[in-house]
Amino acid sequence: MALVKCPECGKENVSDNAEMCPECGYGIKAHFDLLKQKQLNQEIYQRKLDHVKMPEKPRKKKFFYVLAVLSVIAGLYGFFLSPVIAIIMFLYAWWMYYEGDKQYKREMERYNLALTDFEKYQKEFVREEERRAFVETLKPKCPSCGSTNIQRITTLDRAASFTMVGMASGKIGKQYKCKKCRHMW
Ligand SMILES: [Zn+2]
Ligand SMILES: [Zn+2]
What does pLDDT average to in each consecutive run of 10 residues of the chain (185 residues)? Predict the structure, then answer.
């Protein structure tokens, strides 16, 4: 508790815990609670920003190029079987090359931003982190262990498990299965 000046009428020595200003009735406590909350949020945000480190220089992901080269080779062999297979393999190779290139360019853009405007990079990083955390809260969770690593039980799953074990199947009438603790609900 501290003694403050009423922000509305300027009366001195009012407790910041007082619901109302004795002079003008202004909601003192609510005003200062909100202020404290804002300060706290600002501190948390600042700490998150300070946490963001300079990223490492991105490297091209070999994975995509290996797949592309393998597809080209498969496509060349495919010519013996049918030109259609070859064309599909070549298209796949091009797609893999394109994906690898796209990811690399995106990472390079972020890296360059960090080099030229690190503050902006930090802000964007935190925003992206917060967005991901928010998306995570929207995901359905296992009511037993809280894991988000869950799987939807499809009608096909249910039918298959019914044919296998009949009415005893635990999947009947359940919508989700937790991949971590195997709970179904
Ligand atoms: Zn007042
Ligand atoms: Zn679980």
Answer: 90 92 94 95 95 92 89 87 88 92 94 96 94 88 88 79 67 83 89
Ligand nearest to the CA of 8: 1
pLDDT reported for residue 23: 93
- pTM of the predicted protein model: 0.61
How much is the pLDDT for 149?
87
Per-domain residue ranges for the chain?
A: 3-51, 62-138, 141-185
| CA 144 to centroid of ligand 2, rounded, Å | 5
> What is the rounded distance in angstroms from the CA atom of residue 182 to the CA atom of residue 110?
39
Ligand closest to 13 (CA) is 1
Distances (CA, A) of 61 to 83, 105, 136, 167, 168: 29, 11, 27, 49, 47
C-alpha 177 – ligand 2 centre gap (Å): 8
Supply the pLDDT for residue 26. 95
**Residue 174 CA to ligand 1 centre (angstroms):** 59
SS3 content of the chain, % helix, strand, coil (to 5): 60, 5, 35
Report which bound ligand comes closest to the CA of 142: 2
